[in-house]
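Write out the bound-state structure for adenosine-5'-diphosphate.
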Amino acid sequence: MSPLAGPILTAAEIRGAEASAMAAGATVDSLMERAGQQIAVAVRRLAGANAILVVCGPGNNGGDGYVAARLLREAGLKVRVAALAEPKTDAAKAARAAWPGGVEPVADAQPASILVDALFGTGLARPLDAPDVPLPSSQRKLGSQAASAEQPPQETPASAGVMARNGAAATPITAKLRALAQAATLTIAIDLPSGVTTDDGRVLSDIPVFDITLALAAAKPSHLLQPAARHCGTIRILDIGVATTSAAQVLTRPNLPPPGPDAHKYTRGMVAIVAGSMPGAARLAGIAAMRAGAGYVLLLADDHSGPDALVHKPFAPQAIADPRIGALLIGPGLGRDADAVAKLDATLVTDHPLVIDGDALHLLKGNRLTTLATRDTPLILTPHAGEFDALFGASDASKIKRARAAAVQANAVIVFKGADTVIAGPDGAVRVAPGASPWLSTAGTGDVLAGAIAAMLASGLAPLEAASAGVWLHGEAAHRAGAAFIADDLAQALSAARATE
Ligand SMILES: NC(=O)C1=CN([C@@H]2O[C@H](COP(=O)(O)OP(=O)(O)OC[C@H]3O[C@@H](n4cnc5c(N)ncnc54)[C@H](OP(=O)(O)O)[C@@H]3O)[C@@H](O)[C@H]2O)[C@@H](O)CC1
Ligand SMILES: Nc1ncnc2c1ncn2[C@@H]1O[C@H](COP(=O)(O)OP(=O)(O)O)[C@@H](O)[C@H]1O
Ligand SMILES: [K+]
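---
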């Protein structure tokens, strides 16, 4: 059981990885047995001596549930199984046959302190209450081990079940799942919470928020993309012997060594920031750049407020021509007037590595974006959802797909911000940031991020690494800043975030 990290695989990619494992000698049954073993070990650790209810669906996610239930029972735990429908796959049928206890219809299942959701995983195809799934044909083997579990099930007429075959009014699956979850002290989803898509972070049904999700083999996009990610709770990855690789990775702590003994301010990186009609935003970015570790930050603004360490100069084409500039940031508080346009156009003709944020992103629409894409020097764009839609068009596609397409279009690294920030490069590399603090939803935090990224770019990191390091530092600073912080506090907290080894 390892923390959320490593590659992020779509449903098709995980099926490909599974196929490779099978080409190398594994079988669906052996993979399912291994998955069930790992789940049983994890659940046992989490459940203690508490009674467990495993709810199983008709596919291989349900199969994993039957295997885990059998192994947990063999380990002496009180386990009951409830099924939504008879297993459909051969492996799930075999797993069901090997489960020696009874099987209750989910609709009738009494709760247990530990709820294990093995209804659907990567095969979920539609909202939970949409399909006509029949009840298990053999109801249950009462008098078996099930009777010794906490709150053993009572006999219930078949007509009372979810999606009863006689067409009687059905209890919606989601309502039942919510009720079972509410009555449990710990809820554990196998692979994915049932009711979320695998690839794009959508939640198809009104499902509960789980305490823990045990992701099999690797993270999937919906473990990270909102709103699905918030239904996962704490995510742990289980190694089930399937090798996984992907161009998409969970964002992790960057390797940022402290300055060497021979460092000087220019070797640590010089950031220049173009200020505009709201100089406070550019100032915040400047403070953030300094606290993220830049050696020299130049604020191209007419006013002189802010910390003394921040060097001020009025904006002028010769000021941005300084060859020592390692990254030039434009956008925070720039405005969209003629002055802003002139500053942006002067900036775009330099050959400095660029970070473009905020208002400047709106001004890129059309020709400027097309021209920018032909530029060879490093470029990072940091849109929030509104800026992204304005620049690249709105779409229902997954945030990862959209960020990748935008990166190709702009020939730039895209930092698509939000509660689930996605960083994408034109070569298809993707990093997705997990667990951002919702307290970041306050004005000015994007300016702080832009400053942190500019500092990383000026330090010499490649654009994808610079953007990733900036997003990580920003997230770490937010956790350190705690609750109800303001953007100034966040910028301040970057120093401590940068100091972590
Ligand atoms: N990755 C690995 O290496 C390994 C993965 N393993 C496990 O396999 C899981 C994927 O299994 P899976 O492909 O069988 O899909 P799963 O999620 O069980 O559901 C598919 C079934 O549900 C049905 N169905 C779909 N939506 C529905 C709905 N709303 N309501 C009702 N029914 C619905 C669908 O029916 P159909 O659409 O075909 O009519 C089909 O019958 C994966 O998450 C992991 O747990 C391990 O066992 C081995 C190693
Ligand atoms: N609900 C949220 N949860 C986590 N992070 C968030 C949330 N809302 C915003 N953020 C983060 O806060 C920052 C806000 O940036 P932005 O929208 O540009 O704000 P501003 O323009 O006011 O500086 C981004 O880094 C974004 O990823
Ligand atoms: K599940």
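---
Residues 358, 384, 417-419, 421, 436-438, 440-441, 443-447, 449, 474 surround adenosine-5'-diphosphate (ligand 2) (CB under 6 Å).
The longest helix spans residues 28-47.
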